[in-house]
Amino acid sequence: MPAYHEPVMKSEVLHYLNIHMEGVIVDGTLGDGGHTEFILKNTAPDIRVFAIDRDLSAIERARERLSPFRDRVTLAHGNLGDIKSLAAQNGITHIAGLLMDLGVSSPQLDTPGRGFSIQHDGPLDMRMDPSQKTSAAELLEKLSDIELMSIIKNFGEERYSKRIVRAIRKEQAERPITTTGQLSRLVARVVSSPRHSRIHPATRTFQALRIAVNDELEQLKSALQDVVGLLNSTARLVVISFHSLEDRIVKTFFRDEQKGCSCPPKIPQCICGRSQTLKIITRKPLVPSEDEVAQNPRSISAKLRVAERVYV
Fold first, then answer.
1. How far is it, in rounded angstroms, from Cα 187 to Cα 58?
2. pLDDT tens, 204-229?
3. pLDDT (tens digit, 9 = 90+) per residue, 261-295?
4. In CATH, which of 1.10.150.170, 3.40.1190.20, 1.20.58.340, 3.90.650.10 is domain 112-214?
């Protein structure tokens, strides 16, 4: 039996989805299938899960894991931004809840050949879907200095983006940057970590490139916009994020959809025509328990937010 990725906050996910006796739950980020398995084990037989992932190898791993529930689960290959179209292709027009776990799975991080890991040397790839055209190494080659600095600064929240790009260009003048080890050592030479910090100096740069390679933030924005219309009344949207950029997008979207009207305060009557679509359930994001963090240290940065569909 393969060592499967441990899903984060699975009990909280099940609780806040508030699943009833029947309907379709969408898992927009299947991964190894841990959340889907937990949902199917703990819900009524008439609950089905429609699960999506952009990584075909993850789908195959999950298919084996979920084989006892094959009559209650449908798996599909695609990105977060494809949820609406993939649901329609499978005859799904309304859903009873939706989960998005935005983290990178352990098999992706721990497999050197996938090119995500700072700790394990491998090709500088970072594509969640290997059929995508552009890898991280190719991105370093094709982007201008300004574009690369912007990605590292904005997606990685890295204050030393200019210094890092200078070092990258100096290295590229001598040889291509093609491996994770090569890039992590390069960044470590020019960026110092705070004393006693357990965070590698290249962590923010790797995060930035991964987000850019996989278009993660735009996929998230697109998915949030699309799925609201699929949710039944009182159905819930549960999102687990792992860094501040994702969490900010989710927080802002939930707030705006709860508010509805976007007209300036000085306008006496609404002219935008927007109505409230969501009610925020978690005023502040939930975080993993101390016990969960002790058992699964990778869960430490997780934040879970929940909103419920309303029709007004």
1. 30
2. 999 999 999 999 999 999 999 999 99
3. 888 887 887 888 788 999 999 999 999 999 999 99
4. 1.10.150.170
